[in-house]
Amino acid sequence: MAGTIVLNFAVGAAAFVFTFLSAVFQNVWSVSLWRAFIAFLVFFIATYIVRWLIGLFASPAATPDVGNHVDLVTPEAGAHGPHSAEAERDLAESFTPFQPPRLDRTEVEEDPDKIANIIRRLADE
User: Of the candidates 1, 115, 105, 103, which has an alpha carbon nearest to the alpha carbon of residue 58?
Assistant: First the structure.
């Protein structure tokens, strides 16, 4: 990105002052201040976008091959990397599957007559 954010503030401040001075003689000071604030925001954001575009198009590419070249070289079979046979063997030896404790079902035995009476009371309400 070209320049610094100080440039954004400078352009925004210039727009603020110009807008405020041109509007204060024809409007109430609060309206002039509000319009100057909006001008500051618009010019601040516009300067940021222009700086970004200048930085995007004007800067020379430091590494022109970045993103254009794919390295298709595979590692040697004996290399000790994260996917080597030795690493997989160590992983298989250290792996123990998770065995949660078995949950037993507890049956609450209720008298069928009691359940029928509860349903009758609920149906009456």
Answer: 1
pTM of the model: 0.46
Could you give the angle at which helices 29-58 and 5-23 cross, rounded to 10 degrees?
150
Higher per-residue pLDDT: 45 or 91 = 45
Distance of CA 3 to the CA centre of its chain: 26
**DSSP character for 81?**
S
The DSSP result for 9-70, as a single string, is: HHHHHHHHHHHHHHHTTTS-HHHHHHHHHHHHHHHHHHHHHHHHHHHHHHSPPS-TTTTT--
